[in-house]
Amino acid sequence: MSILRRMLSLIVSLLQWLFPTNLVVSQTELSILPPVHNISEGAKRGLRVVHLTDFHFDYQHNPPKITSTLLDDIVKTNNSLNPDFVFLTGDFVDRTASASEELIERWLSKLKSKYGTYAVLGNHDYKDGKSGRDLIVSNLEKHNITVLNSEYRIVEVGDPPVKIEISGIGDPTCKFRGFDDFRVGDTFSSKDSEIPRILLSHQPDAYWKMKDYKYHLQLSGHVHGGQIVLPWRTPVLYYVDLIRRWAPKQFRWLFKLPLDATSDWRRTEGLHRVPNYGEETYLYLNRGVGTHYPFRWNCPAELALIQLVPK
Ligand SMILES: [Fe+2]
Can you say whether residue 82 is alpha, beta or left, with left for phi > 0 and alpha for psi between -120 and 50 degrees? Predict the structure, then answer.
């Protein structure tokens, strides 16, 4: 058994060598702010937001689903960008909640920003039961990372001050594990909004449940950009999903996971428009930094730098 495990580990290491996981900084500009002044030290044109997601840090896997080299690079890159906010959208651990202590203490607590770090939990953060979920939340809060479990904060930025609302919701699948962190009605201060609103939600498909509440940008992860992406930027899972749709009913269960991660495998990274409050809003889908199956191909780890500028 241990020989088999070593062989598998060797094959995975070889795949990782063939398909390296380097960090790519993506840049996006969105005009969703009212006119403001002196909002950012680093960029005169607006608020600088760093979005990171899907760390999948764990002790149990060899090779690991995220390396300490990549985590060092993430902290160094974030701090060199002088962001105003850091937003983290879940899957801090793969399964073992106690691993969050090292991830947060050694790396996430070192992410610098002017107005703080805000986080929501992903589906993997609920896998270690109630005590596991609570441990991840307390480890984040111990290091001044604000966890938004169907909550919001109104923050003033710039000079003179301008208000923005940061809302966060837990993963919708948490209810199957007995948690109540996905409560749409508690996530926003009201249905309509006079001020810019940013929603943090691990799952991109959550926008269907939130479309009666006006917000201006949703930051999500969860689908890891598809992880194995063909040269024409289509994830392999898009074709697997097509096969599932055409397969006879009795065989569809074979394709169940990880296909259920999204309803649309054509949309796995970058900026999209989705229905919201009778109009449309922005959904940014980050490829994430960790992996689920243990390698990426043509789908590098992502640190998203989003510049929010005046309309
Ligand atoms: Fe994930």
Answer: left
Record: fold of 24-310: Purple Acid Phosphatase; chain A, domain 2 (3.60.21)
Cα 292 to ligand 1 centre (Å): 6
Find the 166 Cα to ligand 1 centroid distance in Å.
22
Q: How far is the CA of 192 from the centre of ligand 1 (A)?
A: 31
| pTM of the entire predicted model | 0.91
Taking the centre of ligand 1 as the mean of its atom positions, its distance from the CA of residue 311, in whole angstroms, is 33
Task: State pLDDT tens for residues 198-252.
Answer: 999 999 999 999 999 999 999 999 999 998 899 888 998 888 888 888 877 777 7
Q: What is the pLDDT of residues 93-119, one digit of tens each?
A: 999 999 999 999 999 999 999 999 999
Query: Residue 228 C-alpha to ligand 1 middle, in angstroms?
Result: 14
Q: What is the pLDDT of residue 257?
A: 61
Would you give the distance in Å from CA 155 to the centre of its chain?
Answer: 21
Cα 227 to ligand 1 centroid, rounded to whole Å: 10
Per-domain boundaries in the chain = 24-310
pLDDT for position 253: 73
From CA 44, how far away is CA 48, in angstroms rounded?
A: 10
Taking the CA atoms of 176, 223, 126 and 197 in sequence, report the sign of the dihedral they define.
negative
